[in-house]
Each structure stands twice: as C-alpha cells, then as structure tokens.
Amino acid sequence: MIEMFRSHLSRALVVILSSAWALMPAASAQATAPAARPAGPTVISPEVVPDHRVTFRIQAPKSSEVTLRGDWMEGSATEKLVKGEDGVWSVTVGPLTPDFYSYTFVVDGVKTLDPRNALIKQGVTSVDNMVFVSGPDAAFEDNNPVPHGQIRMLWYQSATLGMQRRMHVYTPPGYDASTDRYPVLYLLHGGGDEDSGWSTIGRAGFILDNLLAGKKARPMLVVMPNGSLPMPANLPRMTPGVTPSPEAAAAYAAARARFVPELMKEVIPQIEKNFRVVADREHRAIAGLSMGGGHTLQVITAHPDQFAYVGVWSAGIGQNAPEWETANAAFLDNPKINNWIRLFSISAGEKDFALNGSKNLQAVLTKHGIKHEMHISAGGHTWINWRDYLNELAPKLFGPISWAWADLPEDQ
Fold first, then answer.
1. Sign of CA dihedral 379, 384, 388, 390
2. How many Cα atoms sit within 13 Å of 374 on the Cβ side?
3. Of 388, 391, 410, whose CA–CA distance to 213 is shortest?
4. How many helices (H) does the chain have, and how many strands (E)?
5. Is 410 helix (H, G, I), strand (E, B) or coil?
6. Which of 5, 8, 17, 206 has the maximal Cβ count within 10 Å?
7. Does the 139-230+249-404 domain belong in CATH 3.40.50.1820?
8. SS3 assignment, position 115
9. Does residue 142 contact residue 134 with C-beta atoms inside 8 Å?
C-alpha cells in the first residue's frame, strides 16, 4: 500500500509541475537569456566606384586618429581618415589610375590591416592589404577570361641554408597535357618580401596568362624563389646610424651572398629535376627588382655563361662604382659576355631612389663595351613599375615569338 501511494503521489507532482511550467509567461522563461548585441554599422572597405575613386573605411569608435598609407602615394605621404558619428572612419582617394595597389591603416600609431578586406600581400615580417582598380590601363594584369596557367608551391630541403625552403612556380596553360620542354624565367622579389610576392602583388601569373593569350610571349615557366635569407645567429649586431666595422660589413656581405649558391645549387636543380624545362643557357633568363636586382647582378657576374637574358630593375651599384668595377673585372673584361648574354636590360623610375645606382651600372657596362639597354620610366620604387617591367621583358625572351606559336592550334 505504501509503495502504491508513493507512486501515485510522484505522478501527481509531475503533472502539477508540468502544468505550472506550461502556464508561465514566455518572458519569465527568457529572463536569464543574454541581451542581444546592438547591430553595428555595415562597413564596406575598400569600395571602388566606376570613376576609379576608392573609399577606405574602418570601424574604430574609441580611436583618436586613423591614417591611410598606399603605394600610389609619393614619398611618406598619408591620408587622414574622418570619423563618423557611427564610429566608422573613412576617406575617399583618387580617381586612381587603374592598377593593383597595396595599403594599410595606422590606427593610433599602430599599423593595422583592413578587417573588411581579405586580399592580403604577405611579406617576411609584415602584411598589407591589396585593392584592384580595373580599367584599360590594368588589362595586362587583370584576371581576364583567357586560358590560365597554374601557380604551384614547391618545398625543398636546402643544403646551402640547412633548412626547408619554398618557391612558387608558374606553369603555362596546357603544361600538364603537353610533353614539350619549356624555357625558364627566374624572377626575384625585393627586400621584405618572400616567394609569394610575385604571384600576389606582382600579378605574374595573370601577366603571363594575358601575354600568352595574345601570343605576345613564348610559353615559359616562371620560377619565383625566396630571396629573403635567414641571417646566421653569430653575425655581429648592427647599430642603426653607425657605420659597421670592415669585419662586420664583410660578414653581412658573405651572408647575403649565399643567394648565389642557393639559386645555382638548390633552386635550379630542383626545377630541372621536377619540371619539363630546357636546361641550357639559351633557355634561361633571370630578372629581379630592388634586392632581387642586386641578387641578379651577383648571379650573372658569377655565372655569366648560364643565362642568356638579364633584367635588373630598381637596382644598380650604388655609389661604389669603382669598387664594384674592380671586384667584377673578370666579368666586365670577358670577351664572351656579349655572345652569352643576348639581352641585358636595366629599368628604374625617374623618382626611384635606386636610379643613380642604375645609371652607375649603365656607365660601367658602357665603359667595358657590354651591350645593354636602359629604360627610365615614370614613378618610383614600387610594384606599380615592376609589374610593367615584367610585362615589357617577357615578350623579349627566348627568341622570336613566331617560333613558339607557329605549330600551335588557334585556341592555345
């Protein structure tokens, strides 16, 4: 009896409690739910309008100053953003010449990425945002509806540097379906960048795609290695503004010079092992910008019989032309140079801080009778120029273009 009574009592309590819960107001059931956050303003950044003006925005309601720095600006110029009542800072620039640009914000003195823009240029120690302003002037680097090649990443173990290294490699449209062997352009980035630079902000893949679609260049591989080298731990510390001792300067020069064996003993053998390329001088070219232009000079003066085409962009021999001339006498006085090197091209902008060094290089080459061409463009030390230089150099590589396209069907 007692057990039966307990069972009936338990059932009754369940029914009573269930009914009471069902009768509770909905507001009481939700009393402990967290309050919803108020919706913030919709932020679009960057916003490119048809007349090529660009508006940049960032939500920073508690900040006191926001500025914008972009590579279309000259020198150290910046643009100040204006704060709106909703806490969104904004500025409109332009109209800009159609091109591909990089930029960052500085928020209360701190470099800050645009959180609304996932298009990123990665460097060795920093990242920047990128924005594309489309138009006829930028058609050569645009993602046009043409056959596209591939950008591949190749990791390898470097015995020269004792570590894993990476390079980016462009293969032209139809590479995998073909059995042909291709010439190679070794394309070098500048200081602060790494091997992804030429395929992101440099637009190398799209530039080659468009040239090939227009039958303006020969199908080729473009190899983009990492020219930023790790510095040995035992290097003497450099003090900014203080001239290093001869021993320290020599140590740093030796560390930087490791790029030459890295390219010749590691990068090129990896390419010739893993890709279908023609492995001789006539089918190799090398070009680089800024630091990469310096690397190009180091490589070609040490191995002039290995490359038939050379491009030195926004680089040269600085103010120590006599010293460089003496150190590279074997190259400068070699009677075979003009037979080995079919094209030696130097390019720099009229506002480029490296222009004097480029002119010094031109003067030394002229003095020693080494054939070359010199091109001074508008602008300064920027990717805006370097993409143009690639677009101008590629059609000049590896012989008459008609040879390459004579036997190909019209749709290639």
1. positive
2. 17
3. 410
4. 13, 18
5. coil
6. 206
7. yes
8. coil
9. yes
Would you tell me which CATH number, out of the four given (2.60.40.10, 3.40.50.1220, 2.40.110.10, 1.20.1300.10), belongs to the domain 47-134?
A: 2.60.40.10
Amino acid (1-letter code) at residue 101: Y
User: Tokens 């790029």 identify what position?
Assistant: 259
Task: Determine contact, residues 271/294, Cβ cutoff 8 Å.
Answer: no
Tens of each residue's pLDDT in the chain, 412 residues: 434 434 443 444 333 334 443 434 443 434 454 555 556 689 999 999 999 999 999 999 999 999 999 999 988 899 999 999 999 999 999 999 999 999 999 999 999 999 999 999 999 989 999 999 999 999 999 999 999 999 999 999 999 999 999 999 999 999 999 999 999 999 999 999 999 999 999 999 999 999 999 999 999 999 999 999 987 777 777 677 777 777 777 777 777 789 999 999 999 999 999 999 999 999 999 999 999 999 999 999 999 999 999 999 999 998 788 999 999 999 999 999 999 999 999 999 999 999 999 999 999 999 999 999 999 999 999 999 999 999 999 999 998 765 554 444 444 4
